[in-house]
Design goal:
By secondary structure, the protein is of the alpha+beta class. It folds into 2 domains: about 1-35; about 35-90, 2-Layer Sandwich (Double Stranded RNA Binding Domain). It contains 2 helices and 3 strands; from the N terminus they run H-E-E-E-H. The protein has helices at about 1-30, 70-85, and strands at about 40-45, 50-55, 60-65. The chain starts with a helix and ends in a 12-residue tail after the last helix.
Length: about 100
């Protein structure tokens, strides 16, 4: 009986730690007025009036999308990158 209570207690403590970790991450992500996050997406308009989604590190653009006629399309591109990017395959087409 004592062993079961210890396991339950450890499990509950683990949940509490995970909850605190998640809370801390949320606070760090949503801190206002402090230093900006180094990586971010920006939606800008190009000279042709199209909306372009840029992925930036500090103030440097790392990559950007094609131009879109609507801001909603640029936002959809960002959502697609966030959803599909982490699992995307890396293909090296260069020769060694």
């Amino acid at each position: 009986m004592r062993l079961a209570m210890r396991r339950a207690g450890s499990w509950q403590m683990g949940l509490a730690l995970d909850s605190e970790r998640a809370k801390l991450v949320r606070e760090l992500q949503h801190t206002e007025g402090d230093a900006e996050m180094a990586h971010r997406f920006e939606i800008r308009q190009n000279k042709a009036g199209e909306f372009v989604a840029y992925f930036c590190h500090n103030s440097e653009a790392i990559f950007w999308t094609e131009g879109y006629n609507s801001k909603a399309s640029a936002k959809n591109a960002i959502e697609s990158i966030l959803k599909n990017g982490p699992a995307a395959e890396v293909v090296d087409t260069t020769s060694d």
